[in-house]
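Appendix B, example 12.
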Amino acid sequence: MAAILEKKSWRDFDWLIAFLAVSIVCFGVWQIYNATPTETYWQKQIIGLFIALFAMIVIALTDYRRIIDAAPLIYGFGLLLLFLVLIPGLGVKVNGQTAWLNVPLLGRFQPSEFVKIPVVLMLAKYFGERRMGPLRMKEFFVAVGSLAAPVFLIMLEPDAGQSITYFPILAAILFLSAIKIRWVILAILAVMIFAPVAYWVGVQTGKIKDYQQQRIMVILDPENADPRGYGYHTVQSIITVGKGGLTGIKGDTETSQSALKFLPEPQTDFIFAVTAENTGFVGCISLLLAYALLLSRFIAGARESSDRAGMLVIMAIVGGMTFQIFMNIGMALGFLPVIGVPLPMMSAGLSAILSTFIAIGFVLSIRMRRFVN
């Protein structure tokens, strides 16, 4: 333990990354309080921040290469957690989804948030060796298989929103592993051809629920959306965003769409709409700049990584986090369907903040060892 806590490690610690992450969370706590002033979500988020900070520091002060070596065991443990969720009596059902486990002292924990880390480590271990030439077909199928197992279990919950967030991780790994451009073109064509077919089959078989169809239709045909029915979430979010103007309403609970409970799930799915309402355009731009600076520090760490595996871990984290930011903001602004993707470090939830800070811990660990062979 003394070797782990050596002075050199602290000297190489990237304090800017830690500061930006904590600042975004604190900004999020303020918005969660604005959204639900009579609830305890913001207090739980503060407790979650301290737990997440501890996990981040432990990972940062641990040699990431040792953890990557254990990736198969960690990956297997992640699949076990996803399997336990599906066992009657163990999984906790909320809003039609059985996606949580009750953990002593921590309360509800969502394994699908945590399992992104084992997937990243598993892919980085497999593709982390120095390589020459383009991606081989065998490697492609191994990567897809590594992703397919957790995504399949998550879809059984069912949680389409979480399952989608895994694909940018795979895309980042494959892109950096020199996937052939013709494979990319074929994949795009396959999606364009089979996505409508899969949607039709899902509707006919009942796998795509009525509310999921309606959330898609409100994006495709917003003029005919029922503002009191399936279009309610999107319409209320757009109203909330527009109400903020340039500088926001500054926490005025008497006129707040979120505080008056017109906006559903303001502390999670629509936290960006709450941010727009309370801090306006200025606050939203400030948040996006903070994200941009944080992600740029991540990318700098990937460039300086002492090995390929470390670079892949960071860039997979960048891909996943960027996608979640884009999806959540797209939901709030009404140009993407509402599928329950949280905004990193802003949305309330212990699972989300813990998994994000563990990921940041890996970025810090890799940066701290960038001069080590």
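Residues 1-7 have pLDDT under 50 and may be disordered. Residues 302 and 311 are 4 Å apart (CA to CA).
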